[in-house]
From TrEMBL, chains A, B, C:
Reactions accelerated catalytically: a UDP-3-O-[(3R)-3-hydroxyacyl]-alpha-D-glucosamine + a (3R)-hydroxyacyl-[ACP] = a UDP-2-N,3-O-bis[(3R)-3-hydroxyacyl]-alpha-D-glucosamine + holo-[ACP] + H(+)
SUPFAM superfamilies to which the protein is assigned, alphabetical: Trimeric LpxA-like enzymes
Name of the protein in question: UDP-3-O-acylglucosamine N-acyltransferase
Annotated GO CC locations: membrane
Pathway: Bacterial outer membrane biogenesis; LPS lipid A biosynthesis
UniProt keyword Transferase, yes or no: yes
Ranges where the Mannose-1-phosphate guanyltransferase C-terminal domain occurs: 105-182
Swiss-Prot/TrEMBL keywords: Acyltransferase, Lipid A biosynthesis, Lipid biosynthesis, Lipid metabolism, Repeat, Transferase
Amino acid sequence: MGQTIRQIAAALGVRAEGDLDLMVLRAAEPAQAGPDDLALAMDQKYAGGLAQGKARAAVLWEDADWQGLGLQAAIFVGRPRLAMSGITRSFDAGPELAPGVHPLAVVDSSAHIGAGAAIGPFVVIGRDVRIGTRARIASHASIAEGAVIGEDALIHAGVRICHHVTIGDRLIAQPGAIIGSDGFSFVTPEKSGVEVVRSTLGERDEIRAQSWIRIHSVGGVEIGDDVEIGANATIDRGTIRATRIGRGTKLDNLVHVGHNVQVGQDCLLCGQVGIAGSSRIGDRVVLGGQCGVSDNIIVGNDVIAGGASKIFTNVPAGRVILGSPAVRMETQIEINKALRRLPRLMQTVAELRKIVTGSVQKDGADQEGT
Amino acid sequence: MGQTIRQIAAALGVRAEGDLDLMVLRAAEPAQAGPDDLALAMDQKYAGGLAQGKARAAVLWEDADWQGLGLQAAIFVGRPRLAMSGITRSFDAGPELAPGVHPLAVVDSSAHIGAGAAIGPFVVIGRDVRIGTRARIASHASIAEGAVIGEDALIHAGVRICHHVTIGDRLIAQPGAIIGSDGFSFVTPEKSGVEVVRSTLGERDEIRAQSWIRIHSVGGVEIGDDVEIGANATIDRGTIRATRIGRGTKLDNLVHVGHNVQVGQDCLLCGQVGIAGSSRIGDRVVLGGQCGVSDNIIVGNDVIAGGASKIFTNVPAGRVILGSPAVRMETQIEINKALRRLPRLMQTVAELRKIVTGSVQKDGADQEGT
Amino acid sequence: MGQTIRQIAAALGVRAEGDLDLMVLRAAEPAQAGPDDLALAMDQKYAGGLAQGKARAAVLWEDADWQGLGLQAAIFVGRPRLAMSGITRSFDAGPELAPGVHPLAVVDSSAHIGAGAAIGPFVVIGRDVRIGTRARIASHASIAEGAVIGEDALIHAGVRICHHVTIGDRLIAQPGAIIGSDGFSFVTPEKSGVEVVRSTLGERDEIRAQSWIRIHSVGGVEIGDDVEIGANATIDRGTIRATRIGRGTKLDNLVHVGHNVQVGQDCLLCGQVGIAGSSRIGDRVVLGGQCGVSDNIIVGNDVIAGGASKIFTNVPAGRVILGSPAVRMETQIEINKALRRLPRLMQTVAELRKIVTGSVQKDGADQEGT
């Protein structure tokens, strides 16, 4: 794992100074760095940390005085987070997976596994599965009949890729991710309470006792290139057409994508986001942690939703939203400010009314339980 | 998988016309349908799609002119979603599981597996487990000692059914579902901050440093017939009595059901719903995606909660609720409307006060951080 | 599993009366208890249940008249929930795991497993793993290279402990828990929409189409003693430094802890809580079910957050909070009351304005969609 400063700077395509042959073994925070570490100090505020630590080499902000900081070598970067990508990649050995197929894996004879694959113990690969070259599949993963996966896949332990799912190149699936479970789709013989309430916004004349009948999911899941799926995330297959995740989109842990959902390209769905059935998410959409999207909703391109936003209505392209129900972020920030003053506002209005009408009226009779 | 129009119409119990011996291989959306597909066009709005596609047969709305639509055969249905159930079922081959017990499954000799079962590779079945006839158990599932499962179970890959869980007939467990994990139940030696705050609604005189002591879960989980559990959903066992899920209830992906919870019959718990310990949910309750139910709450029969509703207090039977905290849906819709106008309302009140009292007072001093 | 009343009282360190040699086989609720059960009736309100049931022995409140209740023996406790801990522990046999290493486990020859361990079928243990004495590791778990786990670990089925994770003594990991998945950390070549919006609170001049570049996670996860991780919970590894969970902290099912997060000691993170990257949670913090913590937030010691609270800003030590965005619990309760009266308030203000200004103005023009 050792690398020289020269190698790292070259990989990042940036400038380095000092002893370019100095070898470093890992990246570290400035204050914790030892003499064999590369300290990551891409902002002036880390200068103090560098002084505490023992690093001989560091990644620094662009006009830093590396000699004044007591270093023997330094790499200079402009956009720190971007540099982090290259630096962490160069130090990431990835999970250890011996090349070849483990003797305790069960691989169907009709499956086609590309050259250079590493398949761990207790992996199951079904009939007619096709997996591209250099796939790394960790222990306990299962890939069911007819699934197709592109090149350079990294499939961590316990991932489930269900039957006939198709996935592009460079998939990363974190442990426990499930791709292609059945959709959650049920119907009652007669109109259900949910159908009634959706049309009346809450009114119900009559309540019927009915059981749910299953709508099966005979569609698949289609995933583009360069997609990452988080730990224990779940993606349901479509009813008739496929559920789709576009190229370059990343899903965090415990994200739920319902049946028939279409997610565009280059989206980020952060931790615990849930998207209900048949909704369509555009390209480059960012949904913060714990956001929810109701079913059959359209979220336009480039929408950004703050954490825990709940989206019940269509969102035009480019909008930045927040809250539950989600509204424009600026509006929500104003609402939040106003909310904190709301109890006081009620007092003020009561006082005004007293002055204006000359009488006090009780204003609590309409309190409402759940 | 090929079926004739006659067979499908008979299975649905509905009327068909045209060439009833026409064979179709799969269901498809009208515009994407090929000549061997059955186009699903149960509403007039799909007529255009039919014209684009190449289907020779379709499922149509009841008074459709099938010949005018250029079809050779047609099936007519009244309630489209209900028809979807029968149609998708007839085309769902289900997961491929070879009959018999895979040589790399570990089945305890005391376990009783019903006739016709299919048990996949790397399955573990413990002591005294009883599983009904025709069970299909996919790879990597584990069923621990003393668990009892009825007939026709479909248990997908990686499902965990923990010790002494009992389940009725026709269970469907999606991949990664966990039934019978330990409850989350802890106690401090002296009153905890949570106990204090619950009684005072926020006030605390004194803060003690205490560690949490575990309350073990020696109750089980009891699940009725016709229950489906979603991918990576979790159901905790009870402390003393069993956690219960009633007949016909369906849980979506990533749903969490806490210890001692009682869920009635024919409920739908949508994606990422969470129910805290010891709450009781009635029959035919529908909780939309990401709903939460606090602990020790009673939710009555036939309650419907919109997505992301958070239920902190008991809910009477039949009520339709929304919001956080959840209130009647109509009330919440009014509140939501009012909220968007709240910043403007504050201005209006400030202006009124100015007019009425003849003086301007500052109204920002009571702003509150978190 | 049988125990005498004397044994149980001694284990609890409390007083018992009557036939102390009476043997009980399990704990039960009073009304359901049979003659071999120990009824748990720690409050006067259970007296009626005792009369319905058939228990000969019970755990009672401190000044209960056990003979008047028709019992042959009784144990008396002061703090019922605390007693529950000892009683349930004494009746919890735990999962059945045969001692030794199952022949179908794959244990790397360099791994060190402490004495008395039980390792189930289809377990995978990687290179240089170290596990303390008396570990119990259920089927299908995987522990990757370099991981270190202390004594008396109980690791349930299908748990994933990723490479180089370090964990203290007495770990309990419920089924499907994942410790050490990669962090969700991505960067765009130029400033992303999220970065712009964070600085402007919603304004964007220009929208760029960019793809996400991965920041790898080369940090680990460090977990203290006496930690419990819930079913299907996920803990991401750090980017450079480790993600940390302090001694005595308990995580419930489906909790998500992002990369670089630091959680203190003796915290409770209830079901489906999510903590975004790089946030710091103090000691003895309690986050109710479905709470969310935004990234880079500091939550002080002894903070208690009610269910579904969403924390967007730092929280001072000792504060009790509620709501989304979370504010002091008292404030939120007032806000909630006011919200229910908000539609009426708007009417009142409209009426006042009419009186004061002598004219009616329309106040709906500023309604805002999402």
